[in-house]
Amino acid sequence: MHKIQATKVTSPPQKSNLISCEPLVHISDIKLIRTDTTLDLSQKAEKAIHQIGSSNRIMFHLIIKKKSFKNFFQQTIQKRLENCLLPFLNHVSEVGAQVDLQDVLNRFTFDSIFTIVFGFDPNCFPNKFSELREISYLKSLPVMEEVILYRHFIPCCLWKQQKWLNIR
After folding, report:
1. pLDDT confidence of residue 43
2. CA pair distance 84, 128, nearest whole angstrom
């Protein structure tokens, strides 16, 4: 029985009007060379998905290990600490108000990660305690965390069974 061999062919960057979140599309082409005629379609799809997934993981690790990304990450967090978190905590101590520290740190984390990933500041974190407002998409963060944890820790056979029994 023959195997599918994957070869990675890098191509020069091409100008494109398409903006995509998929860096792999713009950086390299992956070509699968079919040498086995006995593989069915599901096996081929599974192997292709695994190949793309592992390539994405490799690309992600290459990006986060770069010194320039580490410097950018550190500078972004430092700016947010100096311009947002410390002034907010100083204002809270001057006013003598009580705050939920978990909520404050969730807002800080959300703003920081959102700024790093998307290059946009959602401004969930004001400079003054009196300007602290309720933000709906910030409330969805714990729900998303729970879904991700549930998805990764519950065995595949159990969620398939729950789906079959229509249990959510």
Report:
1. 59
2. 9
Question: Cα(108)–Cα(77) distance, rounded to whole angstroms?
Answer: 9
In DSSP notation, 80-137 reads HIIIIIHHHHHHHHHHT----HHHHHHHHHHHHHHHHHHS-----S-SSGGG----HH
Total Cβ atoms within 10 A of residue 85 = 19
Task: Return the structure tokens found at 86.
Answer: 């410390």
Share of the chain above pLDDT 90, in %: 1
Residues whose CB falls within 8 Å of the CB of residue 58, separated by 6 or more in sequence, listed in order: none
Q: What's the burial of 59, exposed, middle or buried (CB within 10 Å: 0-12/13-18/19+)?
A: middle
User: Which one has a higher pLDDT value, 103 or 33?
Assistant: 103
Residue 105 has pLDDT above 70, yes or no: yes
Answer whether 0.85 is exceeded by the pTM: no
What's the residue count for the chain?
Answer: 168
Residue 23 φ then ψ, to 5° = -65, -25
Task: Name, in order, each residue with C-beta under 8 angstroms of 38's C-beta and a sequence gap of 6 or more.
Answer: 1, 2
